[in-house]
Specification:
199 residues; alpha/beta; 2 domains; nine-stranded mixed sheet; two-stranded parallel sheet; 22% helix; elongated
């Protein structure tokens, strides 16, 4: 069996266990970005596979990261907005859940707490809009996800980013085409905390 693989590799001009190039890694990461944006991978699955793609050395190891993904995508996702409107009370999402392209939370008093590690995104870029008098936004995302902060609170502290950059721009070390979470906040007193758990 091994001899057959070696013969096939010689015939194609590529050894079956040859070290993969940076271009091949980038192509796999791009495919993973697209799959995550189509809801085929949770953010944690996406993050784990991207990190593995950066360190594997052979073609079979790299191929294994995308072998279970369909050859073609699901097409253009439908634009949907989920509304959460309550006078008093917060919004909490965690575990395996589907995030629409736009999540809007309107409250007088109450925070928004989102754990996106096992979430499936409806699009490559999703947006959370939080409008409240008093309320804070706390999100947890795995490594490799872009987070963009917009807006702010009149009396609250600036957006607090744990392990990330500043407000008003893309944060973290994610690629420009990585899945993106955009957080827009408008409040009298509040703020934003973005948490990135360690590996």
């Amino acid at each position: 069996m091994a001899d057959n693989r070696e013969m096939a590799g010689r015939a194609s001009g590529t050894a079956p266990d040859a070290t993969v190039s940076d271009a091949e890694r980038d192509a796999v990461v791009t495919r993973l970005n697209r799959a995550c944006g189509e809801g085929l991978l949770s953010l944690t699955e996406y993050s784990d596979r991207v990190q593995e793609a950066r360190v594997v050395r052979t073609r079979p190891e790299l191929d294994r990261l995308v072998d279970d993904l369909p050859a073609s995508g699901r097409g253009t996702p439908e634009v949907r907005t989920e509304w959460h409107v309550v006078p008093v009370g917060g919004l909490r999402r965690h575990g395996r859940w589907h995030m629409d392209r736009h999540l809007v939370s309107l409250t007088v008093l109450g925070g928004t707490h989102l754990d996106l590690r096992d979430a499936e995104l409806a699009a490559p870029e999703v947006t959370v809009t939080k409008v409240s008098v008093f309320g804070r936004v706390t999100v947890c995302v795995p490594r490799g996800v872009r987070v963009v902060l917009e807006g702010g609170s009149l009396l609250g502290l600036p957006a607090g980013l744990i392990g990330r950059g500043g407000a008003g721009r893309a944060c973290g070390d994610a690629a420009p085409d990585a899945p993106t979470l955009r957080i827009r906040t408008f409040s009298l007193l509040g703020g934003v905390t973005v948490q990135t758990p360690g590996p």
